[in-house]
Amino acid sequence: MSGCDCTPSVSDLKPYEEAVELLLSHARPMQDTETLNLHDALGRVLAAPVNSGIDVPGWDNSAMDGYAVRTRDIPAAGTSLRISQRIPAGTAPQALEPGTAARIFTGAPVPEGADAVVMQELTCEQNGEVIINALPQPGAHIRRRGEDIRQNEEIIQPGVRLLPQHLGLAASVGVGQLQVWRRPRVAVLASGDELLMPGQPLKPGMIYNSNLFTLAGMLRALGCEVIDLGQVEDTLEATKAALTNAAGQADLVIASGGVSVGEEDHVKPAVEALGKLNMWKVAIRPGKPVAFGHIGDTPFLGTPGNPVSLFVTFLLFGRPFIRKLAGLSEVMPTTIQATAGFDWNKPDKRREFHRARLEKQADGSDRVSVHPSRSSAVLSSTTWANGLVVLPENQTIKTGDQVQFMPFSELLS
Ligand SMILES: Nc1nc2c(c(=O)[nH]1)N[C@H]1C(S)=C(S)[C@@H](COP(=O)(O)OP(=O)(O)OC[C@H]3O[C@@H](n4cnc5c(N)ncnc54)[C@H](O)[C@@H]3O)O[C@H]1N2
Ligand code: MOO
Ligand SMILES: [Mg+2]
């Protein structure tokens, strides 16, 4: 009899979906908002709908440089009409005199009475008259009032991250400020006595603190305010003190490392002492020992120290949690179907999220290839990859099978 605890079996690990659901059930969206000028609102999450006070366009206007006419004044091609007014964009025209044409430019209001615009290439102008060389259809080249946006229409829904085109759309209805949610404030810390900052000379047994940069970078890409609390010594007391300090100033605390079972891993006991550990260990690879809990009332995500595990667990758990905090309506990763360009002969009891590349082949088809290393310490695989391929539990994959792929371009926003 050894008297040892048994190693937990895979069945003790929480399935991925259950783990995400549990985490999201603890994510409380931001309650406070800010009103920002359009330029400053880029990338922020809209808190209140944007309604239009006007029709856009505000009046019927010309889609072409040409002549505004009444079609009934043109019985046949070759009809000549006197030019009774000139309407550049930005002017308010008179009603069109019957039996005449108005010189008009793209974007200029169509005068009352006109029912078509003839593009100037189909005309000939001389001595104050214009010859119309082709019969216009009623309505030709007229952009109708309200064709884009109607007065009182809701044009941007709350819960979207504002892209440049949203800013343009708001401006197009004369709205110059937007109400957005406050950005989530996330405190980050890295545990490990072996860590050095880049720029410092390397010492025997030490490594550079890469996780801090990966983590802070992903948080910034998601629009968070990052509170960098640096490195934490590998003792229970130091870990407790750092977590307490972090929880006092953030909406979420994320730590890297120290979540496994060695006696140098203090994150789990520290969270248990300071609050509650809601979850520990998920049936995924990499990132199995990922932890979630609360320090007092502040949510806490403990990502494993291995650099790829940190990257993957942040994308799988931290990102949806933060997107919910941020007020976004879509929180889960986008997955697309793609064709496997590899064989995966090793069924696993953990769902694997493997570094992969979706690329066009010589024959024009898209194929997913996987990085040869499964090690969660091989960080270079994350810059080789352009996404994660999902390798389901207990499944063998053959070249040509359909697989789920999560593009990084979608994950880092
Ligand atoms: N006996 C067991 N050992 C381990 C298990 C297990 O189930 N039983 N799980 C392994 C798995 S899986 C993972 S993932 C890691 C998780 O480790 P920790 O979260 O405890 O992290 P550390 O031990 O602190 O570090 C692990 C690894 O990562 C390096 N590291 C840590 N911080 C950073 C940083 N900021 N930048 C770059 N690299 C970092 C650290 O030097 C270690 O190499 O546990 C396994 N062990
Ligand atoms: O979960 Mo660990 O991430 O397998 O290396
Ligand atoms: Mg450890």
From TrEMBL:
Gene Ontology molecular function: metal ion binding; molybdopterin molybdotransferase activity
Sorted alphabetically, the Gene Ontology cellular component annotations on this record are: cytosol
Q: Which InterPro entries has this protein been placed in?
A: MoaB/Mog-like_dom_sf, MoaB/Mog_dom, MoCF_biosynth_CS, MoeA-like, MoeA_C_domain_IV, MoeA_C_domain_IV_sf, MoeA_linker/N, MoeA_linker/N_sf
Q: Which residues are in the MoaB/Mog domain?
A: 187-324
What keyword terms does UniProt attach to this protein? Magnesium, Metal-binding, Molybdenum, Molybdenum cofactor biosynthesis, Transferase
Question: Its Gene Ontology biological processes?
Answer: Mo-molybdopterin cofactor biosynthetic process
Cofactor(s) this protein requires = Mg(2+)
Q: Might you give the EC number(s) for this enzyme?
A: 2.10.1.1
Q: In which pathway does it act?
A: Cofactor biosynthesis; molybdopterin biosynthesis
Does the record carry NADP as a key word? no
Q: Does the keyword Transferase apply?
A: yes
Reaction catalysed by this enzyme: adenylyl-molybdopterin + molybdate = Mo-molybdopterin + AMP + H(+)
Query: What SMART domains does the database record attribute to this sequence?
Result: MoCF_biosynth (SM00852)
PANTHER family, from UniProt? GEPHYRIN, MOLYBDOPTERIN BIOSYNTHESIS PROTEIN
Q: What does this protein do?
A: Catalyzes the insertion of molybdate into adenylated molybdopterin with the concomitant release of AMP.
Return the similarity comment.
Answer: Belongs to the MoeA family.
Its name, as the record gives it, is Molybdopterin molybdenumtransferase
